[in-house]
Amino acid sequence: MPEAFIVDAVRTPTGKRGGALAAMHSADLAAHSITALVDRTGVDPGAVDDVILGCCDTIGSQAGDVARTAWLAAGLPDHVPGVTIDRQCGSSQQAVHFAAQAVMSGTQDLVVAGGVQNMSAIPISAAMLVGQQYGFSTPFAESPGWQKRFGDQEVSQFRSAEMIAEKWGHTREQLEAYALASHERALTAIAEGRFDREVVPVPLADGSVFATDQCPRQTSLEKMASLQPLAPGGRITAAVASQICDASSAVLIASEQAVADHGLTPRARVHHLSVRGDDPVWMLTGPIRATRHALERSGLSVDDIDLFECNEAFAPVVLAWMEEIGVPHEKVNVNGGGIALGHPIGATGTRLMTTLLHELERTGGRYGLQTMCEGGGQANVTIIERL
Length: 387
Hints:
By secondary structure, the chain is of the alpha+beta class. 37% of the residues lie in helices and 19% in strands. It has a domain at 4-125 and 244-262: Thiolase/Chalcone synthase (Peroxisomal Thiolase, Chain A, domain 1), CATH 3.40.47.10. Residues 265-386 form the Thiolase C-terminal domain.
């Protein structure tokens, strides 16, 4: 089967809610990563076959196929098409899968995959809230088929996080200790310049340049313990949840033919890609089933994988996944995760992949595995091999 290669991967810094990137139009935010990717690789943009971007809540500045708009906003050739996809939190990881599958099928040779989300401008679940204003129900309410299968129960990521913490016996103190480690790892990574190569600074309207992730915090267990839980008597607080933020990211996927034709130097190859579903009410347990499936299909074991990125939607998601799969914490999210760096939903998949690729190169690792929980109880898994 033909190979799919990762030529380069970039991301903007993550801007905290209401922070440096809050006023930036989503198309321009995505265009910045795309432009940087084209410039860094030196690839002829006219040779790109497609642009696939992940994005959720596609209203306002994110509506109307933001992938196409972003490519044009970047001033790039208008014969190159774009498509926007929504697999909830895994949208841009799925964009990489679609790009790699196109290359592996032999139908395309160069594809830009990435994602964008301005959560400051367009709040999470905004599309559902707008729909309700026009008389439409939520995705789960008033569906006879859904009600017959799952009943009239709350479907919420917050409820799921509480359910996981309870089932796996995580105390609030354990969750907060994990969250503190995420911040400490991210701050160390920033201080040591680990993100310098992957982050493309963003010139702002006021003439300044935004170059460093805004979300990581100097915090403590004492500060976390002072927060009120999201549900009375619950374990989940804002401290153990991913941060709302704004960002974009992009990856160039190429075929062996494109590598030769354009004189490109691939940095990794896609070794495995898959996606699985799990109980949509539990929702956030998807990475457990999906990772087991991926390891079985790829013939690799946990010991074969040098680094893991498991998205920190909530601390119990990663803790339960590590326990079930048998992954040591020292190999997981080594530069911090969504609790510290933020979770710009549509952009997170390729944000994680960008960090995973660069960290494999920094440490000399061979295989990296990436997974994340997604709305509807789904999870993508990608295994990349550093070249």
